[in-house]
Amino acid sequence: MPLPLEGIRVLDLTNVMAGPYCTMVLGDLGAEVIKLESLDGDSTRNFEPKVNDESYCFAVLNRNKKSISVDMKAAEGKAIVMMLAAQADIMIENFRPGVVKKLGVGYEDVKKVNPGIIYASMSGFGQTGPYGKKGGFDIIAQGMSGIMMMTGHPGGRPAKVGIAMNDIACGVTTLYGILGALIGKLRHGQGQYLETSLLEAGLAWSIWEFGAWFGGGEKPTATGTRHRRSAPYQAFRSKDGYVTVGASGDKLWRAFVEQVVNRPEWLQDPRFEKNPLRVKNVEALQELIESVLVTQPTAHWVEKLDAAGVPGGPVYTYDQTLSDPQVQHRRMVYDIDHPKIGAMKTLGLPVKSSGELTEIRKPAPLHGQHTEEVLRAVGYSEAQVRSLLAEGVVKSTGVPA
To answer: What does the record give under GO molecular function (predicted)?
Structure first.
């Protein structure tokens, strides 16, 4: 059975993180993704670490894609983009707002040659509004979406989420927008334009905080690892590290107290009788729980939590995460061969399915690896391809696809 997006062509004008994440997943779903890069290439090709002069980070993010290198500022380069756009089902860009229109490859331009195109734009703040012309990065969006002020420990400096959260949120948001538009086109026959931003995509994930602000005027602040509505629900110090505990419900709380820490007297303490009271008295609760948990290592408590049916686990460093038997069993570390890096690891597929849904089919491309192949496929003759290469309008690695 073919993958769900097999036969769908995506023209990808994005770079760095948010856009490439979106197009990587489209490629995982079976789409033919043509990554159109400048003559200098996606800027993340320069990211360290490098193996055999190829960025490992770029390689992890850009699997299941073809690379074509084009000077879009040249008239012939723009013509190539439009030729590709005319034959694409989906087109995605994440330039600063206004750039694609200036280059002559914006939605209105593409719509003239391909009325059914699904065209997606990603930006820092959106295509309209008082910040509509500003560029933006993940950290700017984390700061402006309020996320940095609610991350970290109470009284500390604002803290960035450890991953590029707003970038990934924007990639995922664009992805479901594109898939929704594609379903709409299949049902109703029309393409459309859609856009989102790092700011909006990150803000859209702040569900509980939004409800608390408009429902009770609560301004979310940093709470460390604690939950704003549940307790105990956080990471606690153990003898050799930290252990997470999620025992906020009354049944789980009783199991935790009686079977894990063996402190039945806590059930009689009026400060901890119900979850809202435990949240209100979380400082005292943490002090009591940690006074017990620091007496044994994390592994001891995880075993007891599992035996009692109370959700809990170790707090890993990233290397420990990648070597965990559950992560290994679920194939989240996947082996693949790259044309220059050689044997390498890439992140596995997070969705498992009963049928054909996603697949890691090929490694990330070299810069311009598929330039000649793609040009010929969309109608350029051999002589035209040679001329474009000689004039420096396009670049090719010369490596067979």
So the answer is: CoA-transferase activity
Give strand pairing partners of 333: 347
Quote the CA–CA distance of 271 and 273 in Å, as a whole number.
Answer: 6
Task: Answer whether 0.85 is exceeded by the pTM.
Answer: yes
Catalytic annotation on 167?
yes
Stated as kind and residue range, the H or E segment containing 346 is: strand 342-347
Are 330 and 352 in contact by the 8 Å Cβ rule? The answer is: yes
How many residues appear in the chain?
Answer: 401
**9-205+328-395 CATH fold:** Rossmann fold (3.40.50)
Amino acid code (one letter) for 334: Y
- For 329, residues 6+ apart whose C-beta sits below 8 A from its C-beta are none
Q: Does domain 233-237+242-314 have CATH number 3.30.1540.10?
A: yes
Q: Which of 28, 42, 138, 167 is catalytic?
A: 167
| Three-state SS sequence of 101-130 | HHHCCCHHHHHHHCCCCEEEEEECCCCCCC
Q: Where in the chain is the domain with CATH 3.40.50.10540?
A: 9-205+328-395
Look-up: residue for tokens 């509004």? Answer: 129
- C-alpha–C-alpha distance, residues 162 and 147, integer Å: 12
What percent of the chain lies above the pLDDT cut of 90? 98
pLDDT in tens, 251-295: 999 999 999 999 999 999 999 999 999 999 999 999 999 999 999
Q: What is the DSSP secondary structure assignment for residue 145, as one 8-state letter? A: T
| Cα distance between residue 311 and residue 32, in whole Å | 41
- Which two three-digit tokens encode residue 94? 């994440």
